[in-house]
Amino acid sequence: MTEPGGAQRPMDKVADIASDIGEYIRQQRSSAKISLRQLSKLAGVSNPYLSQIERGVRKPSAEILQQIAKGLRISAEALYVQAGILDLPTGGPVGDAIRADAELTERQKQVLLDVYESFRRENTAANTAPKTTTQETTEESA
What we know:
By secondary structure, the protein is mostly helical. The chain is 68% helix and 0% strand. It has 8 helices and no strands.
């Protein structure tokens, strides 16, 4: 439901987030070929509660998301971002493309993002390091 001017009411936003995270968990579980019952056991969460999360009836806490992430063998950060607990990391179009690639697992995405960010940090450090010109070097040696 929306308020005048097209804005969503706060409770509607919570419902949307719960639905989105539930759908995301269901997709991850399906791609991992794990049944609801298996994930429930792996995550240490009751089967009915996990089902309610997937259907968007319940919004899980950060602790429960961490347990679910462990059961799915994906990063908890991915679930936190999906649940709106963390902001989507920056990284520009390359990072966005990696995150959007449906062919990669969450672990593969995280490894690629880590490598990419380490290269960016290395280049930034190299570009901000003081540079000496040939003239300065010549004057110092004279």
